[in-house]
Structures are given as structure tokens and as C-alpha cells.
Design a protein that fits this description.
mainly alpha, homohexamer, 114 residues
Amino acid sequence: MSDLVSDFNSYRSKMNDKILSGDNKVIKRIFNLDTNAFKEGHLDVKTKELLGLVASAVMRCDDCVKYHLEGCKKAGLTKEQVMESLSIATLVGGTIVIPHLRRAYEYWELLENQ
Amino acid sequence: MSDLVSDFNSYRSKMNDKILSGDNKVIKRIFNLDTNAFKEGHLDVKTKELLGLVASAVMRCDDCVKYHLEGCKKAGLTKEQVMESLSIATLVGGTIVIPHLRRAYEYWELLENQ
Amino acid sequence: MSDLVSDFNSYRSKMNDKILSGDNKVIKRIFNLDTNAFKEGHLDVKTKELLGLVASAVMRCDDCVKYHLEGCKKAGLTKEQVMESLSIATLVGGTIVIPHLRRAYEYWELLENQ
Amino acid sequence: MSDLVSDFNSYRSKMNDKILSGDNKVIKRIFNLDTNAFKEGHLDVKTKELLGLVASAVMRCDDCVKYHLEGCKKAGLTKEQVMESLSIATLVGGTIVIPHLRRAYEYWELLENQ
Amino acid sequence: MSDLVSDFNSYRSKMNDKILSGDNKVIKRIFNLDTNAFKEGHLDVKTKELLGLVASAVMRCDDCVKYHLEGCKKAGLTKEQVMESLSIATLVGGTIVIPHLRRAYEYWELLENQ
Amino acid sequence: MSDLVSDFNSYRSKMNDKILSGDNKVIKRIFNLDTNAFKEGHLDVKTKELLGLVASAVMRCDDCVKYHLEGCKKAGLTKEQVMESLSIATLVGGTIVIPHLRRAYEYWELLENQ
């Protein structure tokens, strides 16, 4: 696994554990909701992961983009489908999204090559 | 047709005409891209309209939400699918999205009743 | 009660009822969390309402500002404390916050006069 | 003068007076800075007003856009220069800026016709 | 002192000196206002630092979060109070705030351990 | 050339090539529009680069700020003109812009020294 992918996941996992070991119920419930919201419902998992990806991209959160790129990969979405979603994010969110598009492209390549 | 729906569409249409009657090529091309980006491609129109809806909701643009709610309705999406998409937007974008969720719900009802 | 205050609250209440009558659990839980997060805990209600107010102001959500202004009023905060919080929001969030500051000031006056 | 223009200015003026009649020094100084920042310096007033306009447009603040459109008009900028600036704002900020572009176009027309 | 804390502070200090050595009065006054706004007034320093922290978190600025975490530490706020404030930021600002919550948690631990 | 400048440009160039080698027409056209929008028109290149810089700064995108700082340098703008533009960005966008102002100042110095 590439360093960028494993570093991202191990830091994420380590800090989530610390945060969830505290007594803050609001944070725990938000983390819990995040898991539930992306499960199959009236929409399938593929569509939901793309919704999470586009929301993350227009709000320009690299870590959130990475997280949903991993979800997209696991759900079986293709590179073309992911890029088409990101093109909508770039159009709606503007050229300010482009630096995040570059990093998303790089991360997707790493996920494909591992 | 409800006043809210027809007022939104007539103002939108009138101002778009004025803006596009000018000589600014960048604006014309962006308007043109907006039409192309939501056509069927590697993803179907339903998925793309939901992506546009969620991007609009997390960026908290009521007019953009209305525009994509109309697209969702035309594409044949159900109320449950639209609300599930908006629940993801509210989770990712935070409770700050809730006032827009209220207005989106109201606008969807108007679209269903016309 | 001023029209602006009663209109805001009746619309808010009517739409919340409609949204919560649906089957979307993620939205219901987010609404529920919103109630819990602002209850007394390690911080008192006054401080929490000011935190909600400043978060709403820098993210420039008028409805959220109104909602927390009402919370501030009920919690017994003074006009000076509210304005001092909003001055921090204007400094951190920039002059782009000023139009929301004007509407916040107007709404606070209405709350004081009713 | 059109109602939209005069209403905007009289509300703005009335609320600014109220806000500045309070004792909050941070807010007073921010208002004061706003006046100073747009005076001629290493850049001329025209350029500065366009900078204020584009900043307001990408942050999607209608009232701030109106305020700087008035500044642009007073500084002698042409419709073509204003629209070219707004085209950059729409490209950088994305199609989410378009509803604000419509209202900016309408307001500019009102300013030209009075 | 941890490298992360000392690197942040030395870079911040070095660049502030350079910026303030220039002739730009608007920037100098904004820096000055930032110092004044967080002094005791109608609200105490603890409350103000939490307001600065939450504003920084919902606007997702890691450096600003670090700056106010240091202010919170100096003002004598507890970890529980800081985390409760950040839980409000995460609820209001959405799950997009979570990556910043992770880095805030890490930085607070470093401050506690030095 | 400084490492920071050359690293930024080589990564940017490498990833742009990869992204543009794909089949996504929307992304290609947005990249193309970005080149056209900043060419001389009703406004000169200097003014347009400053507009791009301020839009990037208030939306807090470091990579976009760097890109337009390079454009400003090539267009012959002075440090004083760039800093004056960034002071407007800091006033309109708030103190949340300051960390980006530090990195912008550092990058401009690197561009001047190469």
C-alpha cells in the first residue's frame, strides 16, 4: 500500500479512537450517523458515495475527498464515473476546486495501483 | 403552477437572457457547460441531478437547490430519494444547511402539487 | 410579537414538522442532536448559545443567527454580550458578515421589544 | 431612484447608524477600516472597487455585491468592465455564483437607469 | 516543546514580523484589532477564546484553530470544555469539520504535554 | 529556483497533464476557460490577475493564491500593489485569511528572489 494511503488511514484511525474514547456524546453520535448515512437505503451505496465525494469536493476538504474516494473504490465505481462526478464538483464549485481535483486524481491512482 | 415556482423560473429566464445577450464569452461558455455537464454520460441523469442538488445544498444556494429539485423531478426521482440525498448534505454540511432543507422541502411539495 | 419574529417561528415550526414526519432517520437524529448539543454540560447554556451564534454568523446563515439570538435572549444574555460576540464574528469572518450583523441587530431589537 | 436601490441604501444606512451608536470599538474600527481600504493608494479606486466586487461575488454576499456595484458606478467603471470582473468571479467561484450574477446584473441596470 | 507547536509558532511569528514591517495600514490595524477583540470586556477571556475557536473550526482553518487552542490553554479552559465547544462546531459545520477536529485534538494533546 | 516554487509548479504541471489526458470534456473546457478569462479584454492583465488573487485569497485556496502570485509577478505588478490587494482580501474575508496571507507573503518573496 502506498505511503500516502496508509499514512492517511493510520492517522485517521488513531485520532478517531482518541476522540471517541472521550465522553462527548454529540461527537460520538455524529461519527455514528456518518456510518449510517452512507448505507444502502432509497439510494444505493454507489450513488451515496458519489454524493459524499461531490459534497467533499465543493467544500474543498482533501481528507473527506480521500475518504469518499476509498468508499467509491470499494463500491466498485469506475475511474470515469468518479471523474465525471468531480467534473460536476469543479463546475459547480469553480476553478478553486482544481487543486483538490489534482490531489483527488493522484489519490485515486494510488488506490488503483495497490 | 404555484407563484413561487413560476416567479423563480420567469426571473431566472429573464435575467439569463439579458446576461447571455452581452458579449462576455466566459459567462456564455460557463452557462453552456452547465447544460452539458448534467447530460447522460458515464453516470445517468438521475445520479447527476442528485450530485448537483447535494453540491448546491452544502454550498447553501437556495436558487441552485430549486433548479436541481426541478431537474430531479423531471428525471423521475422520488421524494424519498431526494430527501435521502438532502440528509447526506445536512450531515456533511452541518445544521447550517437546515434552513435550506426547509425551503427545499417546501419547493419539492410545490413541484409535486402542480 | 413582531411579524418578523412570528413569521420566522411559524414557518420554521411548520416545515420542521413536515420534515420530521418523513422516514429519514439521519435527519431526525441531526435535529435531535441539535437540541442536545446546546444543553448545559461542561459549559453553561449562555456560553453554548454564544458559540452557536458566532458559528452561525461567520457561516452567514441569517435563520441560524435568528434561532440563536432567541436562545441568547432566553438564556438571559445582554445586548452588550451578544454584540461583543458578533464583533468577534465580524473580525474573524470579515466585512462580508456585516449585512448579517445588520439583520441580527434588527432581530435582537424586535426580541427586546416584544 | 428605483425602490430596490433606495430600500437597500436606507435600510443599510439606518442599521449602520444603530450599530455604530453602540459602544463596541471592534465593530466601529472595522467599519472605519472598510472606508480606508478602498481609498486610492498603490492601486486606484477603480481597481479596488473591482477587487471588492469580486471578493463579494465569490463569497456570494448580495448586499456586498450591491455595495461595490455602487462603488464601481461612482468610480466610472463601464458595464463591460464590471461584467468581465463578474465573469472571473463566476469561473473561480463556480456556477453557484450564477444566481448572484443575475441579481448583480439587475442591480447594475437599476443604477444605470436612475 | 513539541516540534509541531514550536514550528507553528516560529513560522507564525517570523511571517507576522515581515508582514507588519511593510507600510500597509489596513493589515496592521486588522492585526491590532485581533489582539483587542479577545481581551476581557462584557465577556471574559475564556468565553472569547472559545468563540474564536468555534469560528475557526466551522470555517475550517487549522492554523486559526491552533492559535485559539493556545489561547484556550492559557486562559485555563479544560479539555472537556474545549471538546464540547468543538462538538458544537462539528454539529453546526458538519462532518466536513471532522478532519480539523482530529488535528485540533492532536494539537491540544501536545499543548497539555509540554 | 526555490524548492517551494519548483515543487509547486512541477506537481501542478504533472497532474494537469494526467487530468487533461482523460476523456472528460467538462474539465478540459474549464481548464481552457481559465486561460481565456485572464487574457486582456475590457480590463488589462494586471487588474485581472489581482482579481484572481483576491478571489483565491478570500476563498482561502493556497495553491490558487500561488498561481495568481506568479501571474501578478509576470504581469509586472509591484509588491505594494499585491499587498494592497491582499489587505482588501483580509478585510473582506476576515482574520481567517491571515494564515494564507503569511504563506502568500513567503511565496512572493521566493518569486522576487529567483
